[in-house]
Amino acid sequence: MIDRTHPVSLTRQAVALGISRGAVYYVPRAACGACSSARARMSVAAAIADAAVTNVELLDPVSRAQLIEEYRSADVLFLHLNDYEAFKKVRPSKVFEYAAMGKPVWAGVAGYSAEFIKTEVSNAAVFPPCDAEAAIAAFDTLKQQTAPRESFAQKYARRAIMSELAADMLRFLKPKPRT
Known about the structure:
Elements: H1 10-17, H2 21-25, E1 30-32, H3 38-50, H4 64-73, E2 76-80, H5 93-101, E3 105-108, H6 111-120, E4 124-127, H7 132-139, H8 150-155, H9 158-173
């Protein structure tokens, strides 16, 4: 482990550990989508201030186009749903937005969302909501690279979903033969 306070230089520590010197100086930049309310934003801002965290930036709301640019400039896209029973039964649209970007996805989710991300989104790390230690461990499993998720994009494209829905409806509405 690199010790930034140790008298041995960071470069020598990196060499001794067999890791790239650049990895010592470069810290991936995670981006968070949005706080769901002004109250949630105030709570997050207070927690950041209380912990004296300096590598987290809360952004004001932006246009859709600017949001996409923020996603593109991030190294990791972060999603967190609180540990509420209701959130175990949802699949937020943010998952699809993040997966479409090809960036690593770091998600604090449970229930259906967790299973969906684990099985459908490559280079995603899932951890239980509100578990900081598990979040750190999960983050360390991500590959710091952008890689298109072509099969995901094809499978979950609006056209594919609508075609499947239409086929299901036709099967359901098809009259059954009388016996």
